[in-house]
Q: What sequence folds into this?
C-alpha cells in the first residue's frame, strides 16, 4: 500500500518504480519467511520489508519495517546486496531497487516470531511466518535473486527479470 513519503513512482498508468528494503532474518540455518502463492498457483515465500521513505536510509527503512511488521527492535543490520528487479503484476510493469539486509536472531526471538499475531502489527490479516531451511527458501523466494543473498559474507549486485 502507498504511504506518505514512500519512494514509489508512477511513471505511467502501466509502469511503476519502487525503492524497497528487504530483511533476511536467520536462525540455525533457517530463514524467516511468509509463505504465499503466485497467481499461477506456484508456491513462493517472501521476507519482511517495505518501501523506503524520502530522506530515509535503506537500513533505517529496514529497521522501521521490522518494528512495524514484527515488533522487532534490532540495533543494526548487515547490508548484503542490491537487487534490480523487473516484473509484471496485474498488467503493470515494475522496476524496483531492493536494498537487502540480513540479521541473525536468537532462539527466544525465533520462537516469538512464528507465534506472531499479524493483527497486532502492520500486516494483512492471515499473514503467517515460518522458519524454512536456506536451501528450500533459495528455490521459492521472491524475487528469485534474493536466494543468492541468504548467506552472509559477500556483497551482491544482482539483476532479477521475471516475465
A:
Amino acid at each position: 500500500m502507498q504511504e506518505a513519503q514512500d519512494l514509489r513512482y508512477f511513471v505511467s498508468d502501466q509502469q511503476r518504480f519502487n525503492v524497497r528494503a528487504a530483511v533476511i532474518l536467520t536462525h540455525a540455518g533457517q530463514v524467516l519467511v511468509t509463505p504465499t502463492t503466485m497467481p499461477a498457483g506456484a508456491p513462493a515465500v517472501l521476507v519482511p520489508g517495505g518501501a523506503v521513505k524520502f530522506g530515509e536510509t535503506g537500513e533505517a527503512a529496514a529497521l522501521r519495517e521490522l518494528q512495524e511488521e514484527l515488533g522487532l527492535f534490532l540495533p543494526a543490520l548487515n547490508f548484503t546486496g542490491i537487487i534490480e528487479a523487473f516484473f509484471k503484476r496485474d498488467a503493470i510493469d515494475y522496476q524496483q531497487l531492493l536494498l537487502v539486509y540480513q540479521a541473525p536472531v536468537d532462539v527466544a526471538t525465533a520462537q516469538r516470531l512464528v507465534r506472531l499475531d499479524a493483527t497486532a502489527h502492520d500486516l494483512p490479516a492471515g499473514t503467517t511466518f515460518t522458519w524454512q531451511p536456506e536451501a528450500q527458501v533459495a528455490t521459492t523466494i521472491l524475487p528469485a535473486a534474493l536466494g543468492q543473498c541468504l548467506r552472509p559474507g559477500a556483497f551482491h549486485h544482482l539483476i532479477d527479470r521475471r516475465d
Observations:
- Helices lie at 58-70, 107-114, 134-140.
